[in-house]
Predict the structure.
Amino acid sequence: MTQPTDHEQPARDDLYDALDQSWYRWDPPNMAKGTGITHLIDAHQAEVRAAVLREAADAIDARQDKLDAEIRSEYGELDRDTELESAATRTMAKHLRRMAEEGR
């Protein structure tokens, strides 16, 4: 996956500027300022991405729960095809959670 350029990611520029202005408060030893700020931004982006993946997985599960409940209330149970579709959908939600944990 190719990293977006700074032009495509203005929030990254804003975050870099904010960290650059407050660097003196953190100032870790043996680390160049630009490198340290870049590490902080990358770590922040990884956390945000993981949170978005987890939120998407939760939304998928919630939607599937709602669909399953609607079908159960109308028909009393899920048919085999609906069970398979539900299981496949939940597998995708698990995959998103795994991606969030692995940092992919």
About this structure: The radius of gyration is 21 Å.
